[in-house]
Automatic annotation (TrEMBL):
SUPFAM superfamilies to which the protein is assigned, alphabetical: TPR-like
Alphabetic keyword roster: Repeat, TPR repeat
Signal sequence, start to end: none
Name of the molecule in the record: Tetratricopeptide repeat protein 38
Organism (species): Periophthalmus magnuspinnatus
UniProt family annotation: Belongs to the TTC38 family.
Membrane-spanning ranges: none
Residue ranges of coiled coil: none
Keyword Repeat attributed: yes
Phylogenetic lineage: Eukaryota, Metazoa, Chordata, Craniata, Vertebrata
Length: 468
């Protein structure tokens, strides 16, 4: 991306996306931030995210959409809770106050409203508001991306797919960033089990933009969900030089690569990827990104379920997750923080996380995640705690009724598969013969949707050996 290609006031106006600022520099920096967000890549030639945000606010301190994108990105990153951070809640308040004092377009006002709703945890209404933007302005990529990410946090798979499908006809090949929509659409397709179509669309996108890390990530999901391990390993290896440059998504794509090795039972290879690319020393601590943290937790938890010793790595990772114990921004994040505290056997932190969420669940207000806590989040976390204590019977009793509701905590099918594996392991280890039978039934069920899965075959052999 070159500075000369960034859109100024007139260019945005020509696209039907007028900005309430007279500063061409502010408009260009808005474009620079948006482009980096879409590409999952910090462009250091422009000063990276922080440099561009700083330049944006310097060019026009009162540019409302500048505040919408900078504050919105911090909110959508979920690394900071506006409930706890006066600085972040103050940034939201400032944006709203600036908007109230200016003659904005209806589109801009909707953006401010959506950002405010998201900050309150009202993700469904925030998404409805971004969809209102897209109804009249289907090429507003900020609205599309914010909605896409928010649907992901809610596990709203079909809306995430259809949100992109609705706007696709309005995008033309000459439009900036248009090729990146294929990766977005592919992800919605695969999350609604249209795997072949998802692969086709993502590969079309990669033929146009080989370094679109999100499209690579979509194909990685397809091969994971179909247990096509060898295809996945070859695909990730062949394209590593393309996607590893996207610093914001590189760790997550390495996480996918490691999943293939866990599927195969090659734990040493998975641990090598963890240590070299995912661990706190490589990414999670350095980036501070929530995705990097939860990926690290997820890998260690999966390896531990497979019987791999990772205790020292838990201690290292806990240094990064423990400060987020009171955040409670998403249930998905909380689940992964709990993995870390259970991994180091820090009962105090585990209880603090559970009790804090219990308190918020009593009076959730408009916060969608806190509303889900009593029905899904807390029983799930209790099941994880019981499993950790060796109370496998109780873990099964808590987990089994949740199996079709866990989608509501957000994340992808591949990420949430960890909880399917947890239920199977708990059932296999339970002393209850009906639970043991359930475990075998769940493996048969798994085999029907992921034929030729090495993990399923391995677990079935274990189950049969345990329950002769």
């Amino acid at each position: 991306m070159s500075a000369s290609s960034l859109r100024d006031c007139q260019a945005w106006r020509a696209e039907g996306l007028s900005m309430s600022t007279t500063s061409n520099e502010a408009c260009k920096m808005y474009d620079a931030v948006l482009t980096q967000y879409v590409k999952w890549r910090s462009d250091e030639t422009l000063g990276g995210f922080e440099g561009c945000v700083s330049a944006l606010h310097t060019a026009d301190p009162n540019f409302v959409m500048g505040h919408v994108i900078s504050t919105g990105l911090e909110l959508i990153g979920t690394t900071t809770s506006p409930r706890l951070s006066e600085r972040l809640s103050g940034a939201v308040k400032k944006t709203v106050e600036l908007a109230n004092g200016q003659d904005l377009t209806p589109r801009e006002r909707l953006h401010v409203r959506a950002m405010q709703l998201f900050s309150q945890g009202n993700l469904p209404k925030a998404c409805d508001t971004w969809e209102d933007v897209l109804l009249d302005h289907p090429t507003d990529l900020l609205a599309l991306k914010f909605a896409h990410d928010s649907y992901f946090y809610m596990g709203a798979q079909t809306p995430m797919r259809d949100s992109v499908a609705r706007v696709l006809p309005h995008w033309k090949p000459h439009m900036p960033l248009s090729n990146y929509l294929k990766g977005l659409y592919s992800f919605g397709l695969l999350e609604t089990r249209f795997y072949d179509q998802a692969e086709k669309v993502a590969l079309e996108g990669l033929s146009l933009v080989p370094d679109d890390a999100w499209a690579v990530h979509a194909v990685a999901h397809v091969y994971e969900m179909k247990a096509e391990v060898d295809k996945g390993l070859k695909f990730m290896g062949d394209r590593e030089s393309d996607w590893q440059v996207s610093g914001m998504l590189a760790s997550h794509n390495y996480w996918h690569w490691a999943l293939y090795f866990i599927e195969k039972g090659d734990y040493d290879a998975a641990l090598h990827i963890y240590d070299a690319q995912v661990s706190i020393f490589r990414r999670a601590k350095v980036s501070g990104a929530m995705l990097d943290m939860v990926d690290a937790c997820s890998l260690l938890y999966r390896l531990e379920m497979e019987g791999v010793g990772v205790k020292d790595r838990w201690r290292e990772l806990f240094q990064v997750t423990q400060p987020h114990t009171d955040d409670h921004v998403t249930l998905f994040n909380d689940a992964h923080f709990l993995m870390a505290s259970l991994g180091v056997k820090d009962d105090g932190t585990s209880q603090r996380l559970l009790q804090g969420l219990q308190e918020l669940a009593r009076e959730p207000g408009e916060n969608q995640q806190h509303q889900m806590a009593s029905a899904v989040g807390l029983p799930l976390f209790q099941a994880m705690t019981e499993f950790n204590r060796g109370n496998y019977d109780k873990s099964v009793e808590l987990l089994y009724p949740l199996r079709y509701r866990i989608v509501d905590i957000g994340g992808s099918d591949a990420q949430r598969d960890l909880f399917n594996q947890l239920l199977i392991h708990a059932a296999m280890k339970s002393d209850n013969t009906r639970h043991q039978k359930l475990g075998r039934c769940l493996l048969v069920e798994r085999d029907s949707v992921r034929p030729n899965s090495p993990m399923t075959e391995r677990l079935m052999k274990t189950a049969l050996a345990l329950h002769v």
